[in-house]
C-alpha cells in the first residue's frame, strides 16, 4: 500500500485537501492509497522521552504504516521557507533504516508563488541522506490560496501534472519492485 503524508498538523489544511485529491486520482487509476494525516496525531503526547521507543499508539501506528509502505507521497506546504516542523518531528520518530532505506518517495509542494519549492527541496535533502528512492517528477502547486476551491484544483495544468506524477510514480515503484530493490523487498530478505 502506498501512503500519502499530509505534511502539516494544521486543522483544515489545504495539504489534506490536496492529499484527498491525489488519493482520488490514484483510485481513478485503479489503486487504493491511504492518507496519513498529521493533524490527527497527538503531538501533545510527545515530550522527548519517546525517542527510540515508547510511542503513543497513534504515533506507533503511523510510523508502522511508513515502515511497511510500498511508497510514500509527500504533500508538503511551505512554512517559513521550509517544510512544517510537525512533518520533520514526525520523520524524526521514524526508524532507520526500515523507514527510509530504498523507500520510493515522491513530492507535491504547495504554497504561494514558488509552490512549496523550498519545502520540497529541504525534504529531499532528508530523504536523500537516508537513501530513499526519489521520483524525479516533483509537482509544485503555486498560488494554492487562489487555485484550490472546495477541494477542487482550478489550475488545469497543475491538475494534469498531478495525474502525470501518479501515472509515472506507479511505474517507478513497480520497476523497483520488479527488480526487488525497493525497501520492502530488501527488508524481506533480511
Quick recap:
With 190 residues, the protein is of the alpha/beta class. It has helices at 14-28, 57-68, 85-91, 117-129, 144-147, 156-178, 183-189; strands at 2-6, 33-37, 71-77, 104-110, 133-134, 139-141, 148-149, 152-153.
Q: Mind explaining what this structure looks like?
A:
By secondary structure, this protein is an alpha/beta fold. Strands 1, 2, 3, 4, 5 and 6 form a six-stranded parallel β-sheet that branches. Strand 4 (104-110), helix 4 and strand 5 form a beta-alpha-beta unit. The protein contains seven helices and eight strands, in the order E-H-E-H-E-H-E-H-E-E-H-E-E-H-H. The protein has one domain (2-189): Flavodoxin domain (Rossmann fold), CATH 3.40.50.360. The mean pLDDT is 92.
- SS-derived structural category: alpha/beta
Q: What gap, in angstroms, lies between the N and C termini?
A: 21 Å
Q: Using the coordinates above, name the CATH class.
A: Alpha Beta
Shape: globular
Fraction in beta strands? 15-25%
Counted by DSSP, the helix tally is 7
The count of DSSP E runs of length 2 or more, i.e. the number of strands, is 8
The CATH topology annotation reads as Rossmann fold
> Roughly what percent helix?
40-55%
Number of domains: 1
CATH superfamily: Flavodoxin domain
CATH architecture: 3-Layer(aba) Sandwich
Q: Which runs of at least 5 residues are low in confidence (pLDDT < 50)? A: none
Average per-residue pLDDT, rounded, comes to: 92
Determine Rg (CA atoms, Å).
Answer: 16 Å
String of helices and strands:
EHEHEHEHEEHEEHH
Largest sheet: 6 strands, parallel
Amino acid at each position: 500500500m502506498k501512503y500519502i503524508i499530509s505534511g502539516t498538523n494544521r486543522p483544515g489544511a489545504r495539504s489534506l485537501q490536496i492529499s484527498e485529491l491525489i488519493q482520488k486520482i490514484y483510485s481513478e487509476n485503479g489503486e487504493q492509497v491511504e492518507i496519513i494525516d498529521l493533524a490527527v496525531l497527538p503531538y501533545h503526547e510527545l515530550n522527548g522521552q519517546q525517542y527510540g521507543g515508547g510511542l503513543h499508539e497513534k504515533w506507533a501506528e503511523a510510523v508502522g504504516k511508513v515502515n511497511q509502505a510500498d511508497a510514500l507521497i509527500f504533500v508538503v506546504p511551505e512554512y517559513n521557507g521550509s517544510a512544517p516542523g510537525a512533518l520533520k518531528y514526525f520523520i524524526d520518530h521514524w526508524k532507520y533504516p526500515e523507514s527510509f532505506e530504498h523507500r520510493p518517495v515522491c513530492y507535491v509542494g504547495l504554497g504561494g508563488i514558488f509552490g512549496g519549492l523550498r519545502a520540497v527541496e529541504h525534504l529531499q535533502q532528508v530523504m536523500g541522506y537516508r537513501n530513499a528512492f526519489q521520483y524525479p517528477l516533483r509537482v509544485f502547486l503555486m498560488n494554492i490560496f487562489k487555485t484550490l476551491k472546495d477541494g477542487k484544483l482550478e489550475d488545469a495544468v497543475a491538475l494534469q501534472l498531478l495525474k502525470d506524477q501518479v501515472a509515472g510514480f506507479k511505474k517507478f515503484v513497480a520497476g523497483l519492485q520488479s527488480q526487488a530493490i525497493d525497501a520492502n523487498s530488501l527488508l524481506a530478505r533480511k
